[in-house]
Amino acid sequence: MTQIADPNNAGLEVGQEICGYRIQRIAALKDIGAVFYLLEHAATAARHVHISSQDQENTFGVTFKTVPADSTGVAHILEHTVLCGSRNFPVRDPFFSMLKRSLSTFMNAFTASDWTMYPFSTQNRKDFYNLMDVYLDAAFFPTLDRLSFKQEGHRLDIERSEGRQERLVYKGVVYNEMKGAMSSPDQVMGRSLLNALYPDTTYCNNSGGDPAAIPRLTHEQLVAFHRRHYHPSNAYFYTYGNLPLKDHLAFIADKIMRYFTRIDPKTRVPAQPRWEAPRTARYTYPLAAAEDPARKSQACLAWLACDIRDTFEVLVLSVLEQVLLGNSASPLRKALMDSGLGSTLSDGTGYEADNRDTLFACGLKDVAEDSAEAIEGIIFDVLSRLAQEGLDPQLIASAIHQIEFHRKEVTNTPYPYGIKLLLMVIGSWLHGGDPERILQLDADFKRLHEEIAAGRFLENRIERYFLHNPHRVRLCLVPDQYKAPAEEERVRLELEEQWQHLDEERRRRIDEEARSLEQRQESPEEISCLPTLALTDIPPQVQSYAPTDLAPKLPLWRYALPTSGIYYLSGTAGVAALPETLLPWVPFFCYAMAKVGTQIHDYAQMARRIDAATGGLGLSAQARVLYDRSQRCLPLIQVNAKCLTRNIDPMYAIVEELIAEADFHDVIRLKQLLGEYRSGLDTMIVQNGHRLAISASSRNFSTAGALAEMWSGIAQVRTIRTFSNALDDAALRELAGRLAEIAKAVFKQDNFVMSAVGEPDAVEAATRRTFQSGTLSAFQRATGDVRFPTLNLVPDAALPREGWSTSTSVAFVAQTMPAVSMGHPDAACLAVLAKMLRSLYLHREIREKGGAYGGFALYNPENGLFSLASYRDPHVVQTLKVYAGALAFLKTASLGDEDIKEAVLQVCSEIDKPDPPGPAARKAFLREIVGLSDAGRMAYKQQLLAITKDRVLATAETYLGGAQQRSGVAVIAAQTHLAAANEQLGDRPLALKAI
Fold first, then answer.
1. Residue-wise pLDDT tens digits, 40-83
2. Residue 947: CB atoms within 10 Å
3. Which of 224, 464, 510, 610 has the most neighbouring CB atoms within 10 Å?
4. Helices (H) and strands (E) in the chain, counts
């Protein structure tokens, strides 16, 4: 047997026993340069996967298989409640307290349909074991007291307000979180698919919790669920990074394993019994009364596919997903979009390999309800034709290329790489699958190539999984303008009935619990039992990537770095010279440019080429600010592309053709793209309502704020909606002309600078390719010149105080005030102040007391603004009062040096989040353009490390004092919610508008 070299864990062998664990397997993960270990704990049967790499960003996670039998949200509420104090850390919120006492690069917890996970990542060894100590104690020995359950889950409260009768109301963080989630059509669609396709297993339940069912969950049921599910015999441990495995195992054995013996948790998820005939299903989602429901339905087909443990069949279905739906030229996607029945693919479209039985779904969004049968016909026509006539070999090759590329690329987006690997394996591993097979698919890829070469393999799989598979459902998701009012009325009657049967003893208990909870929320805590770091644990430097050199005679910055065989191209252009009438269309231009055809190839041909040669190509609009004293607005367009090093030439050919020959005049294609883009904006309203509210409240403080709102805020949503509502061929031709004009203005000779990031040979090859390109070599600048014109866009003088209505049962409340930007002596204090307000004040007042999912204080050192915001919030007026009390809190709170240190740790953990070399160099190139030097970043960090309590309080007085008179306010909520808020706001109402 070949010995596998692992410098982090020398001497470990299969069969060896360590701290009660037996090493079952060791394998080299060649693609990612790591070593895989699979272990089992003898006494408890706990499983452990360790991935040893040279990555200094170490990851830990413990996952439990959680299989709810109803939709009360027990697994989700338990995820919240275990983080509210434990045996060794008896404080009310150790999780949020550790956010303040750590340099973690990621801390969170997730509830999925059949598992609950507690992961974190950090670059600091001491921090790693501090966090593991808290996480393990929270998961295995939580307090789970009744008050925590009522705060995080649900509770009854007696609401008393001036001029209104007393009444009962439901409160609770998860209750309000799920009210918000179930207002979002994409969330409703995803849960409806599970309910329809898995009626006999745990997946038919809403694991997050249905707001109508959540109040039925009892504290006793929660405790019993924990006792059975949060046990080592039902636990899957995971570690990743360069720290030694032995140390991890010794720590876990000492903290946890010695207290448990093996049990049968009875959490096996059976396969869904297969149907003998297809079914149909109809679900509804809430739509505001002011919106037109005519084409607001979704219709899709969904099939139950293979067992998640069958890695080969999962790979086959992943390839089929890419072939059928992966890009705009994919046959099923193209047929659906060309039908004109909907605006974009339905939510939930694609292959989902997360459940015991995997599923495949496809359909259309923004359709008429009676289109469902026609959509089913299109899908079966395409699948039948493909099965009969065969799949295009180029589509198959491109699909396999896409899967291989994204498995090879190392990124920390949206999660640290170690957590991404955990999420990749957890679904199959929980159900008895082999996690190593998922991490290295060489054998499965080899078999796949052999099967395809033998003929008709994927065509036969289309027949097996789709054409001849009776376990499918035709599902319609239909808007219901009466759903939200009906649900409000149901809740009102339910609470009214409880109120009528409420005796004095029960009223007394409700009031007593409310007082007890408020006292606990208000009382200062002694959190010295929690581990922490010192300021000396913060690394003094910042991650920095200087260019290797600058190419002569070309605006090309070169970064030769180890990028695991992937090459990155970035190009940046200025937008300030555009006429003001074209500015609102820059984001859609960026969305559309890589998706339209050219004068040489149509959009389908371009889509095929992009998938075959790249790992992604796209444009983005950025409303940036120069990091100098001018604070001028720097509007930019970025072009980003990436590929395997062997594909540099074909990728450059695509980029060159798009820049020189992009053609926006296919009005049918333009209409499709506009529909897709609008649908994405509509989805964003409820998913990212807090960001939209912050943007709206910020828009009149500066040119950059006005441009950011125009490009990515409510203004962009309204621009696209207004244009789409009056759409005809003439309007589309006019839009095509606008987009062509933007392209001509942007890609001018002196308006484009580029970076080449990759391994040395790749950078040299890309440089040669750039010099040979008639298009790219035409961009001329003085060496090192990355300056672009700034924008003079005058914002409105009046600060907003407004409410924006949309379909949601919760609110997003934002208030923004002017401050100063990085480089000012107060900048570091403002960053620390934001963290203190969130941790010490807003978390308590808005989340714990108010029941919102989150409350935030955000300082933006680039644009010099300070914002307060809430997410999925049941309140408007109460939250605005909380914002108004921020300065008074700081003046009266007993703040100490430890509070300052904890806030500094939080800011530095964000600054020090690492990136792999490729993405890090891209960011460094953009910093050059906006004028943010490494010296400036270092000076800012040094200011952070020198902050004192007195300076923070003085800064708060300067920028929060009188903030109510010089701040912008924006609220996103339902129309009725906003109207009720205005009744309470008296002579300072919100100006009400519809999104």
1. 999 999 999 999 999 999 999 999 999 999 999 999 999 999 99
2. 21
3. 610
4. 35, 29
Token duo for residue 121: 């990542």
Cα-based torsion angle of the residue sequence 456, 457, 459, 464 in order, rounded to the nearest 10 degrees:
130
One-letter amino acid at 119 equals P
Catalytic residue among 57, 79, 657, 759: 79
Quote the distance between the C-alpha of residue 802 and its chain's center: 27
> What is the number of alpha carbons within 13 Å of residue 323 lying toward its C-beta?
23
Q: How many CB atoms lie within 10 A of CB 444?
A: 18
Would you say how long the chain is, in residues?
995
> Strands (DSSP E) along 166-296, which ranges?
167-171, 235-241, 279-286
Pairing assessment for the beta strands 801-805 and 991-994 based on DSSP bridges? parallel
Residues paired with 118 in a beta bridge = 62
Residue that is written with structure tokens 């015991």 in the block: 356
Number of Cβ within 10 Å of residue 413's Cβ equals 10
Query: Over 138-167, what HEC string results?
Result: HHHCECCCHHHHHHHCCEEEEECCCCCCCE
- Say if CB 853 and CB 871 are below 8 A apart: yes
Crossing angle of the two packed helices 311-325 and 442-454, in degrees rounded to 10: 60
- 150: which residues sit within 8 A by CB, 6+ positions away? 172, 219, 513, 517
3-state secondary structure of 749: coil
Residue 444: which of 612, 307, 317 has the closest Cα?
Answer: 317
Residues 6 or more apart whose CB falls under 8 angstroms from that of 779 comprise 554, 555, 749, 750, 751, 752, 753, 754
| Residue 862 annotated among the catalytic residues of the structure | no
> Quick check: bond before 414 cis, omega within 30?
yes
Token pair recorded at residue 748 = 């001018």
Determine whether 183 is exposed, middle or buried from the number of CB atoms within 10 Å of its CB (0-12, 13-18, 19+): buried
When pLDDT is cut at 50, 70 and 90, the band that residue 2 belongs to is low
Are the C-beta atoms of 344 and 676 separated by less than 8 Å?
Answer: yes
In this structure, how many other beta carbons lie within 10 angstroms of the beta carbon of residue 32? 17
SS3 content of the chain, % helix, strand, coil (to 5): 45, 20, 35
Enumerate the β-bridge partners of residue 867. 816, 858
Q: CA 744 from chain center: how many Å?
A: 34
Residue 704 backbone class (left: φ over 0; alpha: ψ -120 to 50; beta: rest):
alpha
- Given this model, what pLDDT does residue 1 score? 46
Question: Is residue 607 within 8 Å of residue 595, measured between CB atoms?
Answer: yes
For 994: left if phi > 0, alpha if psi spans -120 to 50, otherwise beta; the answer is beta
Q: Sort 23 into a burial class: Cβ within 10 Å, 0-12 / 13-18 / 19+.
A: buried
3-state secondary structure of 634: strand
Is residue 727 a contact partner of residue 671, using CB atoms and an 8 Å limit? yes
Cα-flanking dihedrals φ and ψ of residue 358, to 5°?
-80, 165
pLDDT digits (tens, 9 = 90+) for 355-385: 999 999 999 999 999 999 999 999 999 999 9
Crossing angle of helices 827-836 and 949-960, in 10° steps, is: 90
Residues 497-518: tens digit of each pLDDT: 999 999 999 999 999 999 999 9
CA angle 780, 784, 789 (to 5 degrees): 70
Per-residue DSSP letter, 272: P
Residue 966, token pair as written in the block: 């010089």
**Cα–Cα distance, 659 to 818 (Å, whole number):** 39
- Pairing relation of β-strands 752-758 and 865-871? unpaired
Residue 344: strand pairing partners: 365
Token duo for residue 630: 């001018």
Residue with tokens 């919790």: 209
Tokens 């441990």 correspond to what residue? 237
Q: Using CA atoms, how far apart are residues 133 and 601, in angstroms rounded to an integer?
A: 58
Q: Does 546 have pLDDT greater than 60?
A: yes
Do 221 and 74 form a contact (C-beta atoms < 8 A)? yes
Buried b (16+ CB within 10 A) or exposed e, 34-44: bbbbbbebeeb
